[in-house]
Queue: 3 jobs
Job 1
Amino acid sequence: MADRRKFLKQFGASVIAGSAISLQGNASESYVEQRRLLVERKFAAADRISIACIGMGIMGQRNVKTALQVPGVELVGVCDLYKGRLDRSRELFGKDIFITQDYKEILNRKDIDAVIIATSDQWHDKISIDAMKAGKAVYCEKPMVHQLNQGWPVINVQKQTGAILQVGSQRVSSVAYAKAKELYKAGEIGQLNCIEASFDRHTAMGAWQYTMPLDASVDSIAWKKYFKDGNSPAFDPKRFFWWRNYKEYGTGVAGDLFVHLLSGIHFLTDSKGPSRIYATGDLGYWKDGRNVPDIMTGVMEYKACKEHPAFQVLLKVNLASGAEKVESGKVKFYGTEGMIDFGWNDFVLYRNKFSPAPGYGGWDAFDTYPLAMQEKIKADYAKKYTGKSIADFPAIKFSAPDGYDDRLDHFINFFDSVRTKKPVVEDASFGFRAAAPCLACNESYFQGKVMHWDGVLMKLTSWQVEKLTS
Ligand SMILES: NC(=O)c1ccc[n+]([C@@H]2O[C@H](COP(=O)([O-])OP(=O)(O)OC[C@H]3O[C@@H](n4cnc5c(N)ncnc54)[C@H](O)[C@@H]3O)[C@@H](O)[C@H]2O)c1
């Protein structure tokens, strides 16, 4: 009962009644019902899932809090390289949890069923692979990998071990994206031809200059363990706490943020990815020693295939955007007969059918002709088109309830797969297909080249592979 109350509180009673949602159909109600059944399911002792989290920074701590909302999930241990975050983990999750600076100690424990991987990006592939080989189910944060050549090894190990691996792009489990997908598939925006998506930020934190701890040093950080190849440079707290700003550990705005956008796009369209990718960028404002751009634009070409028509994708991240107060980003799907305009977990779908009557006048050649001819054109037009105008279709609005958290849905889906062994909602192939075009944006920016990608085979075209710098 306590779990159910928690669940109902999170969703708001009005949502269960369906009244907070204005849309066609009742998919949202059946969705909420389905979620409630999942939460209400009784768990036997053997159904309890013991988890650990590797990487207990901002996302790791938030992920653990979210995962623990799923009934039957308990935290056994955490791993982080910085001691302050291990102390904080005990403050948050209890003094009895196991703590370590060596993730292998987590993987060696037989009493841990699943691990969340929320380290900086450069470790995602290695820890995922080691965890799957150690028999753990894996929830790995996005981007699934740090380099283009790391995708297949993760996919292969998942296939060999049969391990559950879900990538952490929560849009894939979002009720708003699920509803929009239904409407898109029903043809409500006509034929999709373009998607524009962006993030606009205007703060130091938005540009990844997070608060530094007071004791950052080699005494509080297992500095050597931070480097996969064992070669550690001189201690530099920025490379550790502001890792996103360095391509050696992070994936820049493309891997960090474009990947959220592409995950939503691929989920909605069932696409396997673009065929041509080009990115430009610049480091114009946050010149703090970082070696990745603070503004980037990516253009991607999606070819027609059985899943979708041909469409263009324009992505942009601007970490020094004066627009942030009015517009912190957008995701817009344009079709021939409408447009879906997403907020975070809400959207408006505007419908705009083509008129069978072309119209005349206004910014047109009509009034450039002699008056007698204009009269004749008018009369002909009336004969041909009267009664053929098209009615206005009202917009469709959807909004997830207050407090809705798509990450909780993503974890519910993950733990459901851990328990029932059913396929995850975002597997390694999906994760790589979302990450790879973003990593290709970085390659395009650094090399100044158009990248050619095969989303079905998940490979760069062969002539480009040898030329990769990474
Ligand atoms: N899904 C989302 O919405 C979302 C949002 C933010 C971040 N993320 C992802 O989560 C990950 C973490 O981001 P963050 O903002 O929490 O970073 P963070 O810097 O706050 O935390 C990363 C932590 O990983 C630890 N770490 C690094 N290498 C490690 C290793 N080998 N073993 C153990 N611990 C290690 C560091 O000590 C650090 O505390 C990133 O991959 C990021 O892309 C996802």
Job 2
Amino acid sequence: MSNRKELDKKDKSQEGWLDEELVIVEFECIDCKKTDDVPDYIIDECSLDLKKGEEVELECPFCHGTMIKAKNAPSDE
Ligand SMILES: [Zn+2]
């Protein structure tokens, strides 16, 4: 019971940076067209192997195809 209070305290102090650091990026599968939300830090890790200008590609969890960053700016209609 007394442990619970300590946990609450920890949560409160982490809340702030969690909100700020966790950026979700939408990826879209080029094979099955499904989308998946990927945390920004995973993309950072994957982009370490990339050359400048190359897009991060992830494996689709649905069809094991290739996922790329979805273009979530619907400017052209
Ligand atoms: Zn897929």
Job 3
Amino acid sequence: MTQFDNRKIKRPSMLTEKQRSQIRACSKDEKSFEILIDILTSQQKSLEHAKSEFFSVIGHELRTPLTAIQGSLALLAKGVPGPLPEKAINMIEIAIENSIRLRDLINYFLDLQMLESGEAKLQLQPVELKPLLNQAVTNLKPFAARRQIKLILQEELPGIRVEADSDRLLQVISNLLSNAIKFSPSSSRITITISDHGTMGCFSISDQGPGIPESLQPVVFDKFVQADVANDRQSGGTGLGLSICKAIVEQLDGEIGFTTTPGSGTTFYVELPAAPPDNEFTRRQKRRTTTSQ
Ligand SMILES: Nc1ncnc2c1ncn2[C@@H]1O[C@H](COP(=O)(O)OP(=O)(O)OP(=O)(O)O)[C@@H](O)[C@H]1O
Ligand SMILES: [Mg+2]
């Protein structure tokens, strides 16, 4: 696959237009305005840097003891130190489940933090949607089969290519597909389609699940949002999956959204810039290299 661009995720603009005009209003002249902007921008940069250092230290400090806890629990569950009564084994299983949940929470949270701060590196490539969707379907088939859920990949898939980071895009597809499976009734169907929207390539994942409750719809991409705590505890989610999907898709200059009918199903869709022909990638790549020199 042709690699045509390695870039850091776009950083959000440091100062908003409103903040800039407030600063302009209290600046004596253009020069003092520029100086103030520079000072504030560099302060914001160092605050962001400190924040991301903080998260990475916290991440390490949490992950290291958690790995040790998980190791000990696994040994206990296997009966390595000696046989345990049934009740103790049940309690260890609960502890293992919760330690997995905590590990996922830490990993998802750090991933989201990296995406939002612009530290996550994206490897942009022309990516064909069909093989990637196929891969996600293959990976998640056993999970769907356990609940007799059929995953249907549209038969006549156009060979659409988009500009994306294939690992990150697979992460988005897997999150959306696993949500669809998790929230679908058993013996239902999930349909995946690809469509060509001119300058954008699109895929969608439709389920026959309960839909997203009206109260949740405006905030469903926010962090830690889950419809029903009891149900989600059972399904073991963190409530960060959709926030991560949104962060990735936006960094890829795409759009993510959904349509839902409570009681009859939900469709999540993702639109990404269509990949131009290979010779255009090479031209762009050359232009980027020349400008960055
Ligand atoms: N296809 C869907 N049908 C119905 N509800 C959904 C669907 N997808 C997401 N939701 C609702 O949105 C919430 C947030 O989804 P999100 O993927 O962010 O978290 P999660 O799936 O609960 O946890 P995680 O992704 O960490 O496993 C879900 O808990 C669920 O209530
Ligand atoms: Mg999820």
